[in-house]
Amino acid sequence: MEHGAPREPREPGPGAETAAAPHWEEAKTFYDNLAPKKKPKSPKPQNAVTIAVSSRALFRMEEEQRIYTEQGVEEYVRYQLEHENEPFSPGPAFPFVKNQDGVHWTWRDHSEALRVGPGITWVLSTSSPDLFIERFCMTGGNSPICYLKAYHTNLYLSADAEKVREAIDEGIAAATIFSPSRDVAVSQSQLRVAFDGDAVLFSDESERIVKAHGLDRFFEHEKAHENKPLAQGPLKGFLEALGRLQKKFYSKGLRLECPIRTYLVTARSAASSGARALKTLRSWGLETDEALFLAGAPKGPLLEKIRPHIFFDDQMFHVAGAQEMGTVAAHVPYGVAQTPRRTAPPNEAPSAQ
């Protein structure tokens, strides 16, 4: 071959193709990794479990609320701007929200207290690596309730009892959340949600019988109607939404690995009135992982053993009992137990009847 003449192309020798393949695969992998990654699409709201959490439920904002109540909006805005780089401390709903990491949830926030000016405080606090909030909404002091249905909200948690009642009146599952009296460690790998039965998952039909006619009549009524499902209560839809997520794990044979665990914690007795509760859930195609019938015993000690991230009850003395034992409890203001009892004025003698 003459010097400078172009070389004739050579056929690859035996094994050349297989030798080059690994290098090509390595190069392809390298360049693929350089391509921008798309953020996974969030599920459609109607296919997700959507939780709306007010700012005062998610964070400790006692001082901010005091200033807003006592000194008005302008002082509140000024205080927030002065402290906008100071993250809020976790509030009662924080562990419940934080524990969503192991579950594919869509979280929604409706800020009930933040105004236009201090919104940056909320943004900075929710930017913590310990907490993922996909969307939030600042309502400028107006009630967020009108937005909840548009967000396909499955549960609304707030520190404002009036807004919670407004949400329930609109047919939205809601509860007023309270901080526990002491801190108790909760699971970081499993979300545990505990529900009362009557006037929470179920209607207040049975509680009305107790209130009007006493326990003996209640037991008779439940026995006679054992096979008749109770009407649904305000949080039935939330249990149903959790159940849909659980079934995604069950369908893959991962029941024991499911990161959600639900509990029915009721004052009903297993022997006399528990059957109707279980049959009602079954008629809805629902279940709880555990059903605990206390026959009127205090719920706090049992909840201390369960250590749920949140417990829902319609009666404040059960909420208070749970708080004392370190449980984050939420009051559901629904049913006959919410009817205020009339008390005689100081200058009026009580009726003899």
Automatic annotation (TrEMBL):
| Single GO molecular function | nucleotide binding
InterPro entries, per the entry? 5-nucleotidase
Cellular-component GO terms for this entry: cytosol
- Gene Ontology biological process terms in this record: adenosine metabolic process; nucleotide metabolic process
For region Disordered, the annotated ranges are 1-47
- Biased composition (Basic and acidic residues) is annotated at 1-11
Low complexity compositional bias, start-end? 13-22
One Pfam family, please name it: 5-nucleotidase
Record-given protein name? 5'-nucleotidase, cytosolic IA
In its UniProt entry, the species of origin is given as Equus asinus
